Write the C-alpha cells for this entry.
Amino acid sequence: MRLSAPIYQLKRKARLLSREARIPLNEALNRIAAQEGFAGWSLLVSRVSVSVPAGKMFARLSPGDLVLVGARPGHGKTLMSLELALEAMKSGNRAMFFTLEYVEKDVLDRLRAIGVERVDFDGLFELDNSDDISADYIVRKLAGAPRGSLAVIDYLQLLDQKREKPELMDQVRTLQAFARASGLIFVFISQIDRSYDPLTKPFPDLEDVRLPNPLDLTLFSKTCFLNNGEVQFRAVG
C-alpha cells in the first residue's frame, strides 16, 4: 500500500497531533495509521517495508547466532522479530517467544498483523510469558530443542530487572554458550536510548542501545536496527 507521505513525515504529523489534541504519541500514531488504511502504527511500519527483508535476513543467520534487534518504540522491532520466527517456522524449525512485556493476546495480535494465525504453525510455535524468565529458565525450557530452532527474547533490558536474577552480562554469556553448543538462534529485542537522534544518523547502532547495567555488546554476532520503516542488518565485528 502506498503511503500519502514518507514515514518520517507521518511521524512528524503524529507528534503535532499529539500536542494539539493532548493525546499520547502512540494514540496519535495509531490515528495517523488509520488515516493511511492500517489498523495500527506497528502494522503500517511492518507492512510497508519492515517485513520485506525478513526472509533475506533469516537466510544470513546461522545456528549459534545471537541477534540484537533494536529500535525506538513504534518502529517495528517486535514485528521484525516475529517475522524472523515466522521464517524459521517456514523452514520447518521451531520458534519460541519469551516475553516479559506482553500477554498472550498481544503476541497473537502481532502475529495476525503479519498475516499469521498460531494454528498455521501448530506445534512449531511456543509462547512463554512467565515472570521467571531468565537465561537459566530459557536454557531449561529449550533443553533438547532441535538445532536451528529460533527463540525471541522480549526484551533484553528486562532480563535482569529483578535483583535475584544474575547480572545481564552473565545471562547473555550463558545464552551465547548455550546457543553455540545447541545450534539454536537467539533474537533479542532491545530498547534504544532516548538520546538517539535520527537527524544525526539514519539508524541507531550499538552505542545507542539502552543499558541499565554493563553488557559487552560484542557478545552479539549480528544486529538489526530499524528506523522510519528502513532496516540496517549487519554482522558484529
User: Anything to note?
Assistant: The helical segments are 7-21, 25-35, 41-50, 54-59, 77-90, 104-113, 135-142, 168-182. The two ends are 37 Å apart (CA to CA). Strands lie at 66-70, 95-99, 125-128, 150-154, 185-190, 222-227, 230-235.
